[in-house]
Amino acid sequence: MTPGGSVNALGSDGMCELDPVTWDAMIDALKANGVSDETLGKVCRQALTTINATPVAVREEWVATGVRPR
Questions:
Q1: Is the pTM higher than 0.85?
Q2: Structural domain boundaries enclosing 41
Q3: Fewer CB within 10 Å, N side or C side of the chain?
Q4: What's the rounded Cα separation, in Å, for the pair 49 and 65?
Q5: How many CB atoms lie within 10 A of CB 7?
Q6: Is residue 69 a part of any domain in this protein?
Q7: Quick one: 50 exposed, middle or buried, by C-beta within 10 A (0-12, 13-18, 19+)?
Q8: Domain count, the chain
């Protein structure tokens, strides 16, 4: 995560690419609702671990259909 709260991950190496507008909006909303920096860091690391563990094809299907694959 960069100092501004956005993520810079490359799709070519299997890492997720997160829309920085969406990511920053979520970070800002969490902060505005009292989430501590410590908790925010834990949540971001856990989310990125889950996102990056999800195969690219599954993520693409999920984005394309709007339905979480089972």
A1: no
A2: 36-70
A3: C
A4: 22
A5: 19
A6: yes
A7: exposed
A8: 1
Tell whether 67 is covered by a domain.
yes
Say whether pLDDT at 5 is over 50.
no
Task: Name every residue whose Cβ is closer than 8 Å to that of residue 5 and which is 6 or more positions away in sequence.
Answer: 23, 24, 27, 28
Mean pLDDT of 2-29: 64
Residue 40 maps to a domain: yes
b vs e for 20-36, b when ≥16 Cβ sit within 10 Å of the residue's Cβ? Answer: eeebbebbeebeeeeee
Per-residue pLDDT, 6: 42
Long-range contacts of 62-65 (CB under 8 A, 24+ apart): none
**How many C-beta neighbours within 10 Å does residue 52 have?**
14
